[in-house]
Design brief:
The complex is a heterodimer of chains A (about 250) and B (about 280).
Chain A (H helix, E strand, L loop, with lengths): L6 E12 L5 H8 L7 E5 L2 E15 L3 E6 L5 H9 L6 E7 L2 E4 L12 H11 L4 H15 L14 H12 L6 E5 L7 H17 L2 E5 L3 H7 L2 E6 L2 E2 L3 E2 L3 H6 L1
Parallel strand pairs in A: 4-8, 4-9, 6-7, 7-8
Antiparallel strand pairs in A: 1-3, 1-5, 2-3, 9-10, 9-11
Helix pairs in contact in A: 3-4, 3-5, 4-5
Chain B lengths: L5 E5 L4 H17 L1 H15 L8 H21 L4 H25 L2 H4 L1 H4 L7 H29 L7 H28 L3 H15 L15 H4 L2 H13 L6 H25 L3 H4 L1
The chains are: A alpha/beta (about 250), B mainly alpha (about 280).
Chain lengths: ~250, ~280
């Protein structure tokens, strides 16, 4: 069986966030000269933050792109645009392949529901059928290591147990395009090792990885390309070996 | 998260393109209607977790209301109980579904903020979630209607086909109302309170708790210009073995067409912005 084509293509992608319910003038006065975050401006009379401007990006199978940049430089916004949640204001985003966005582990977690129910719900949101979820349930349950606790409401879990559950459910997907915001490290040391292996496995199977992180060693380890975002403006995509040059620039 | 194998999002504008994208969202939600169902079912189960009666608690409170209002107000209006109680029972159950779907519509997108901001799930999916959740609840309350119709001996006289037709009109109209308040509430957070006031006023102005035939001709406009009255009567009259005024179907069809056109236009205009409202 031939693998389907996998690609990401952004052409002159510009994304502006309208800001509602803020006194535009006072906000502008305070924030005009601050270097973190996007650029504030007025558009059709409403305050807007330009989160990404004229970003072009072409990725194909085998590309492992690391995103670096200050807080608020647009890394998460780019990931959300790639996941299809945000519509471009200008330009276009085109993605071929199954997308899995691991941006928020707690997406769709209902504390009053049992562990099993939460795994099902999360799987449904990720586009799995009930049958697929049932097929994977044993594996997910085993990986989470929660055993009999899976039949109990998630609110009775400790924070670490919740993280285990969320991680096990969120990573039980198959993806051609894997979008990740920070390398998710959860649980105790033993679980972290397991989690690490599982993520690596997921990354290896995915055609494309886009990973936003502040951890440079991590980026060096998993990515072969890197792009820096600065106030919504992207640097050219460069080889990971030139990361130091990119940081110095 | 998404299963899409091809996704294209562009910044191109234009009424035609926006309408096309809105239609695509609608179609995608139809293809994944089972997801809306799962979410709706999960909502019902999680709201009543740990309760033995579950949604039947609301059924129970509706039943108490039906008995109280049916017997007491029936006496006040001097209408025999076997006539008045069925009217109130059907009224409370179906009108309750209408107002709940619209009131809960205000929370549709606000509640789904997490999913909307990091997935490309169709926006319509969350509208169907609200509608389906209320249909599931209605499925519980319907036992009141069944019990009262049997008790009153109307079981054999009811026109179920007519009621089904009316119910289709009810759902179609309630769905657009629920969606339009969902969009507006996401942007303006005062709207849920305003919507609650409107539905409360509607409960008083609509003959849910009082017989429509008691209204004097000079107040007839209260019924004729009340959209809720037509929505309710198209379901209730056939169940009680009465005829529906022919113009009611005209009003309902017009409301459905006009309401959906307006809602769809609103959605096409705001679709790309809804996630930013939240």
């Amino acid at each position: 069986m031939k693998a389907p084509p996998v690609s990401i293509s952004c052409r002159d992608l510009t994304l502006r966030f309208p800001v509602y319910g803020v006194d535009a003038k006072s906000l502008k006065k305070h924030l005009a000269k601050i270097t973190i975050g996007g650029r504030l401006g007025q558009h059709h009379g409403a305050t807007e933050v330009t989160a990404l401007s004229n970003l072009s990006l072409e990725l194909k199978a085998g590309d492992r792109l690391g995103l670096i940049g200050h807080n608020g430089s647009g890394k998460t916004t780019l990931l959300r645009a790639l996941s299809g949640a945000y519509e471009p204001d200008e330009g276009a985003v085109e993605v071929e392949g199954h997308i899995a966005a691991l941006l928020d582990l707690n997406l769709g977690i209902d504390p009053t529901a049992t562990g099993y129910d939460n795994i099902r719900l999360r799987g449904r949101i990720a586009g799995l059928t009930m049958r697929q979820i049932d097929e994977r349930m044993d594996e997910i349950a085993e990986f989470s290591g929660l055993g009999p606790f899976l039949a109990m409401p998630v609110k009775t879990y400790s924070a670490g147990m919740q993280a285990r559950l969320a991680f096990a459910a969120a990573t039980a997907v198959e993806a051609d395009v894997l979008l990740m915001d920070e390398w998710i490290a959860v649980g105790d040391a033993e679980f972290q090792k397991l989690a690490h292996r599982r993520l690596l496995n997921l990354v290896e199977r995915a055609g494309i990885l886009v990973l936003a992180s502040h951890d440079l060693d991590l980026l060096r380890l998993y990515c072969n390309k890197v792009m820096r975002l600065d106030g919504g403006i992207a640097s050219p995509v460069t080889d990971i070996r030139k990361l130091d040059d990119l940081l110095a620039a | 998260m998404d299963t899409a194998t091809h996704m294209l999002r562009t910044g191109r504008r234009g009424a035609l393109l926006e309408a096309q994208m809105a239609l695509r969202d609608l179609r995608a939600s139809g293809e994944r209607i089972d997801l809306a169902w799962s979410l709706a079912w999960h909502d019902v189960v999680s709201r009543y977790r740990g309760s033995i009666l579950g949604p039947f608690w609301i059924t129970l409170s509706m039943g108490v209301m039906v008995l109280g209002i049916g017997l007491l107000w029936g006496g006040l209006f001097r209408v025999p109980a076997h006539q008045f109680v069925p009217m109130v029972a059907v009224g409370i159950v179906f009108f309750g579904m209408v107002t709940m779907t619209i009131n809960e519509g205000c929370e549709t997108f606000v509640q789904a903020a997490g999913m909307l901001s990091q997935t490309s799930l169709p926006i319509f999916t969350f509208v169907w979630r609200t509608v389906l959740r209320n249909l599931i609840n209605l499925g519980h309350h319907i036992v009141i209607v069944a019990a009262v119709l049997v008790w009153a001996g109307l079981w054999g006289h009811a026109n179920y086909l007519g009621a089904a037709l009316g119910f289709v009109f009810l759902v179609v109209n309630v769905a657009w109302a629920s969606m339009s308040v969902a969009i507006i509430s996401a942007r303006f957070r005062d709207i849920p309170q305003a919507v609650a006031s409107i539905t409360q006023a509607a409960a008083i102005m609509t003959p849910v708790y009082w017989p429509a035939d008691r209204i004097p001709p000079s107040y007839r406009w209260v019924l004729d210009f009340n959209p809720f009255y037509h929505v309710l009567d198209a379901v209730r009259a056939p169940l009680l073995g009465e005829a529906v005024a022919p113009h009611t179907y005209g009003v309902l069809a017009g409301m459905a067409a006009g309401g959906w056109a307006l809602t769809f236009w609103l959605f096409a205009r705001t679709r790309r912005k809804i996630v930013h409202y939240l």
